Amino acid sequence: MVLDVTAKTDKGTVVNMGKKEYWEIGLDAEGDHRLGAWQIKDIIDLTLPPRKTTKETFVTELPADTKNAEVEVKVTYFPAPNKPIEVHKVVKKLNFER
Amino acid sequence: MKPLKVLLVIVLVLLPATAFAEYKSINELAKAYSDETCKQCHSKIYDEWKSSYHSQSIVHSLPGLRAFIVNGLGKEWNKPVNREHIMRCMNCHAPQLKDASEPLIKQISDLIVAAVDEKDEAKKESAKKELAKLNVNCVTCHNTKAVVEKNLRGAAQKDVYYSPAGRKSPAHKTEMSPAMERPLFCGQCHGAYTPPDGDVVICNTLYESYQNAYKANGGTETCQDCHMKKNNRGHTFPGAYQLDIVQEGIGLDAQVVGTKLHPGKWVPSIIANIGLINRAGHRIPDG
Q: What element of type H or E holds B131?
């Protein structure tokens, strides 16, 4: 699962504020299992735990002449490699003139 | 000699047929565990199941099964591809393979590898078509895996269909298995388990996460509550591929503010505080 935060300024500049991945390690980019199942779960847990809120903070500076920006926060779930499902997308508009 | 012959006849008659079942072809095996008669009376449930990933338990998991055969057995452990080792996976993905002959096990394993690696598309599709006949079907849950507390209730009996209520049917023998309404029933496959070769496999720790994280944090819903009862999901068992249940499970709280940092320079800046809320009964992602 991927959390993506991107900002786009009024001048069209795109700034990648940050990306966080939550996944079961052991699968490579092609979806092949590189680690045995017992190795995966015993080593490390990179997933979201149940009944908990996982918090991430991203801070980004924009070009000095930016007056407005639009921030997109997107959560994408990959039930299988190269098969994304967009779960949530939130867009916030910001103004920097004051 | 005569007492020995009598004894042999008695043994052959009294022992369950499945003790000696060793099917030699996929079609024979599929027929022995057929769900075709189930759909005559349970057509709605059958159609629900047919849309679920239980009905595709081998073909949907081909990359992982292939990796186990090629990388695990073939390279890492240097073990033969036989029933003892294949059942580590198939005890959950297609439990009926416990009744397959060794040559059939080898044939099925070759088909799994072909279904992933074969360059000839027609042969690849042909392999998948054969493998699609084997899956987690009505017999798997309502007989093979139906009785969880075996010491208490005995193993599942041949030709008996189990359900939580054990409602009587004129069409077949029925018995009650209350555990089918409990998460432990799902946890037989969707959790850490001991396959027939005695090792411990942690292929899928959903149940462990359910017990040690969800329930430990006060959760009270069961697997069946979310994946069957809610929204009349029934035997579709939705999961990671269905947007509505994924959205139910993952919440997003996006607090975003624009400000200016670095006094003197006053650089336009964005601060985004994101909260990802896991409302599911287990870790995400997992499955």
A: helix B121-131
Shortest CB distance from A55 goes to which of B268, B271, B273? B273
Is B194 an interface residue toward A (CB < 8 Å)? no
Asked if B263 has any chain A CB less than 8 Å from its own CB, the reply is: no
Burial of B70-109, coded b for 16+ CB within 10 Å and e otherwise, reads bbbbeeeeeeebebebbbbbbbbbbbbbbbbbeebbbbbb
Rounded to a whole number, what is the largest CA-CA distance in chain B? 108
pLDDT at site B109: 98
Distance, in Å, from the CA atom of B221 to the CA atom of B122, rounded to the nearest integer, reads 45
> Residue B83, Cα to own-chain centre: how many angstroms?
18
B171-180 contacts at long range (C-beta below 8 A, 24 or more positions apart): B171/B41, B177/B146, B177/B147, B177/B148, B177/B153, B179/B147, B179/B148, B179/B149, B180/B141, B180/B146
Contact across the interface for A75 and B250, Cβ inside 8 Å:
yes
What is the per-residue pLDDT for B80?
Answer: 95
**CA atoms of B164 and B182, how far apart (whole Å):** 9
User: Which residues touch B129 (CB under 8 Å, ≥6 apart)?
Assistant: none
> Looking at this predicted complex, what is its ipTM?
0.88
Bridge partners, residue A46, by sequence: none
Residue matched to tokens 């002959």: B101
Q: In Å, how far is B147's CA from the nearest CA of chain A?
A: 26
Q: What is the mean pLDDT of residues B186-205?
A: 75
pLDDT at B13 over 50: no
Calculate the average pLDDT of chain A. 85
Q: From edge to edge, which strands make up the β-sheet containing B250-261?
A: A53-61, B267-278, B250-261
B279 close to A (CB below 8 A): yes
Q: Does B256 touch chain A (CB under 8 A)?
A: yes
Paired with A2 in beta bridges are A21, A76
∠ Cα B254 B256 B261 (to 5°): 150
- Angle B121-131/B102-117 helices, nearest 10 degrees? 140
- Distance in angstroms (rounded) separating the CA atoms of residues B256 and A93: 9
User: Contact, A76 vs A85, CB < 8 A?
Assistant: yes
